[in-house]
Write a structure and sequence with these properties.
- The protein contains twelve helices and ten strands.
- By secondary structure, the protein is of the alpha/beta class.
- It has a domain of about 210 residues: Alpha/Beta hydrolase fold, catalytic domain (Rossmann fold, 3-Layer(aba) Sandwich), CATH 3.40.50.1820.
- It has an eight-stranded mixed beta sheet with strand order 2-3-5-4-6-7-8-9, with helices on both faces. The chain has a two-stranded parallel ribbon with strand order 1-10.
- It is globular and about 50 Å long.
- The protein starts with 6 loop residues before the first strand and ends with a strand.
């Protein structure tokens, strides 16, 4: 059985009050009952966080200052120079964009690879890159094919190809061993990479992963054409709510920036093609589940995430850690899908403790704070 480390930070106490209604008339009893029903109904509805809280999609205004955006993000600044690795995939010449960031100060001789999620790209690791390089790590941050500044071919996307391309990148850079840290979709890719290339994987961090179950047995397949029509019609409101759901502590301008980038794509003349690419990459979680990779991961592994990333995330994250031999589990309380944005201090504390731990065995101490 896996040993688990839980990082527990108690939530602040919330004030509560109980009121007792003592209506004298039947009409007042009826009013009180109806009011209670209304409150219960509202409480049962899913929350839309940040500025959209309590609003319908129609109430979220579409900004008028968003201009058409590049699907290859030439208009989005990256924190470090971007290089490109030429590849051939399914008979098409493509290129894989990546940042290769040298350590700041004394190098420790180790490399960390950061793998992005489905709705993001390498740029969102900016803060994490700085923390790691100041610790002496070399940091490699690819944009997977179909994402960020990499090529956007219409091909059958899968985690095998992504893992292989990441392996080719490391070979190109002369890196024989690295710690692999993957967030969201990147967490799924980390599982595939670690299971496929244990000789290259020094250790693995599966961070707020998606793909926690095999979805083929939970819902029927939707045709690519149906999914494409839905993606093609993406609105600002849908983009907003798609990002806002990641954050328990509410939306901030630095998060909404990604909504604007997504919406800018839809205004581009390249959007019809890119919408098909987005449709195909989103199908990976259905067509290429990684739940069967977990027991084959033999390297030292941390399962890390915010415990409010969906109602069942803590239980399913524990299942991942139980399935991977010897894995650790760290859950950051009251944080959602992107802890390196919402709670960077606790995220970096957990990440660096794991990366800098020399023991080949996972820690067993329960860390609590009261």
């Amino acid at each position: 059985m896996a040993h688990h480390t839980a990082l527990v930070i108690p939530a602040s106490k919330r004030a509560s009050s109980n009121q007792t209604n003592q209506p004298c008339l039947r009409a007042l009893r009826l009013i009180a009952f109806l009011a209670w029903c209304a409150v219960a109904l509202l409480a049962s509805q899913p929350k839309v966080l940040g500025r959209a809280q309590g609003q319908t999609q129609a109430q979220i205004p579409t900004p008028t200052d968003v201009k058409p955006g590049s699907i290859n993000l030439e208009d989005v600044p990256y924190p470090h120079p971007v290089s490109y690795l030429p590849l051939t995939m399914y008979g098409q010449d493509v290129r894989l964009a990546y940042m290769d960031v040298a350590p700041a100060g004394q190098p420790n001789g180790r490399t960390v690879v950061l793998l992005h999620g489905m709705n993001f790209f390498g740029e969102y690791w900016t803060g994490t890159i700085e923390v790691l390089r100041k610790q002496g790590f070399r940091v490699v941050v690819p944009d997977q094919i179909g994402f960020g500044r990499s090529s956007k071919p219409i091909i059958p996307y899968n985690f095998h190809d992504m893992a292989l391309n990441t392996r080719k990148l490391l070979q190109h850079l002369g890196i024989t061993k690295a710690a692999i840290v993957g967030h969201s979709m990147g967490g799924m890719l980390t599982a595939r990479f670690a299971a496929s290339y244990p000789d290259v994987t020094e250790r693995a961090v599966i961070y707020n992963p998606i793909g926690l179950t095999d979805p083929r047995w939970d819902r029927p397949w939707q045709s690519t054409d149906e999914a494409y029509k839905r993606t093609l019609g993406l609105t600002y409101q849908q983009s907003y709510q798609g990002i806002a759901r990641y954050f328990v502590t509410g939306m901030k301008p630095e998060y909404e920036r990604y909504v604007r980038i997504h919406y800018a794509w839809t205004l581009s003349g390249d959007w019809p093609r890119f919408a098909m690419v987005r449709t195909l990459v989103q199908q990976m979680t259905y067509l290429d589940p990684v739940v069967y990779d977990w027991p084959h991961i033999k390297v030292k592994t941390l399962v890390l995430g915010g415990d409010k990333d969906g109602a069942n995330f803590p239980e399913r994250a524990k299942q991942i850690a139980d399935t991977i031999p010897g894995a650790e589990l760290v859950l950051i309380p009251n944080i959602g899908h992107v802890p390196h944005f919402e709670s960077p201090d606790l995220f970096y504390q957990a990440l660096l403790r794991f990366l800098n731990s020399d023991s080949t065995k996972p820690a067993t101490k329960l860390i609590t704070s009261r």
